[in-house]
Specification:
By secondary structure, the chain is an alpha+beta fold. Helices cover 46% and strands 20% of the residues.
């Protein structure tokens, strides 16, 4: 390494900088391969990563020299990579040839173990077809490069575990928030039910029919609210466990949605709705109960979070897909929260605390749509409303 010229030393420093600055090993290895080629002659370069089952994954491979056109048919030194990992040693395989032999059949292979402390991650191989032999300075250079690649892989593992740790912490926090929220949400209807029931059962007061009916109506509404929360919890658990089965059948979506909007208007007489469909909307294959549950949830959300807003439902189709938009004209969702609204237990922190919600509704919608092989997303702008966009295949991807 001491005999390297300044240009080669600068190239090695550049390799180190690229690896140090990178958070993506694929991009880093792509960039570094060209730099290595300017320092060392090789035809093929390959990085093997050891799996827990002792099999190997190729995370990077390039054919840049002789035999490039035949790269798919050439040996990439997997057997040697296994030996390197087993022995944790450099392996140099050189097979001299005479002029009558095919150079592609005589690879010169230099393999370096990718080792960090006591942990071996994989192997780094350079392959030359028909030579020239690897000299000691070539081996030193390759060792340095292999060490840099090991740093890159080690950091990727660190970043992976860091992300996993962050996700777990976020999930724990969401679950804590959910327990707090659901405790409040459960107490609220139970408090109403208990309070009005106790009031009706008092022996010291006779309630007139109108008052009794008012109290019973409140009890009925709060019981429905409680039932919805319990159903959401059960559905969420079933979806998480993959136990919710879809009963596919032919559905006329326009009819299904019209019925849902009509039912909502019974409970909310002032609600203004509109449905826009393509002419001669064709039926699709899906579970009517579950897709109805999705539309009901989206309409209920619009009523809850965009009170007084008109709700517009649009259906479009092509040969393979059906698109449903549910739009309101409410205050909208802050952009920073849009990536999270379909996550389990998520509720917008600034949401009015008097608005009921468990953070499960949109999560369940997403799971149901994805179980149909579809997609769901949200578009929202401050003070211009929110559109929930659904994409469904006209035929089920998987039949239950």
């Amino acid at each position: 390494m001491n005999s390297l010229d300044s240009a080669s030393l600068e190239k090695l420093c550049e390799i180190s900088r690229v690896i140090l600055d990178s958070r993506d090993w694929k991009h880093a290895l792509n960039d570094v391969t060209a730099m290595i080629r300017s320092l060392l002659i090789f035809d093929n370069l390959v990085v093997y990563l050891k799996r827990n089952d002792d099999l190997l994954d190729v995370i990077h491979a390039r054919a840049l020299g002789r035999g490039k056109a035949d790269a798919a048919d050439l040996a990439w030194g997997e057997d040697i990579a296994h030996q390197i990992i087993k022995e944790k040693q450099i392996i140099l395989k050189e097979t001299p040839l005479d002029n009558s032999e095919i150079r592609l059949k005589k690879p010169f292979i230099l393999g370096i173990p990718l080792v960090m402390g006591e942990e071996i991650y994989g192997a780094f191989l350079l392959i030359r077809f028909g030579g020239p032999p690897f000299k000691s300075e070539h081996i030193q250079l390759t060792q340095f490069i292999a060490q840099q690649i090991t740093f890159l892989i080690d950091r990727q593992y660190y970043l992976k575990f860091e992300k996993l740790f962050e996700d777990q912490n976020q999930q724990i926090q969401l679950q804590k928030d959910f327990i707090s929220t659901i405790s409040h949400e459960l107490r609220s209807p139970l408090g109403f039910i208990k309070g009005y029931t106790t009031t009706l059962l008092r022996d010291d007061t006779d309630w007139d029919t109108s008052t009794q009916r008012e109290f019973l109506s409140i009890i009925d509404q709060e019981t429905d609210h409680l039932q919805t929360m319990i159903d959401n919890l059960l559905d969420s658990s079933r979806l998480q466990a993959g136990l919710m089965k879809m009963n596919y059948q032919q559905i006329h979506l326009d009819t299904l949605i019209k019925d849902i909007l009509a039912r909502e208007k019974i409970h909310h007489p002032q609600l203004e709705t509109e449905i826009v469909t393509v002419q001669n909307t064709l039926p699709i294959q899906g579970d009517p109960n579950r897709l109805g549950q999705v539309i009901e949830n989206l309409v209920s959300n619009a009523i809850k979070y965009a009170p007084g807003s008109k709700i517009l439902v649009t259906i479009n189709q092509d040969e393979e897909l059906t698109f449903i938009d549910v739009k309101d004209d409410g205050a909208g969702i802050p952009e920073k929260y849009l990536p999270y609204i379909f996550e389990r237990f998520f509720r917008i922190p600034e949401q009015n605390p008097v608005i009921h919600g468990s953070g499960l509704g949109l999560f369940i919608c997403k799971q149901i749509i994805e179980a149909h092989g579809g997609k769901i997303g949200a578009i929202s702008h401050p003070n211009r409303g929110t559109t929930i966009r659904i994409q469904l295949p006209n035929r089920p991807i998987v039949s239950n």
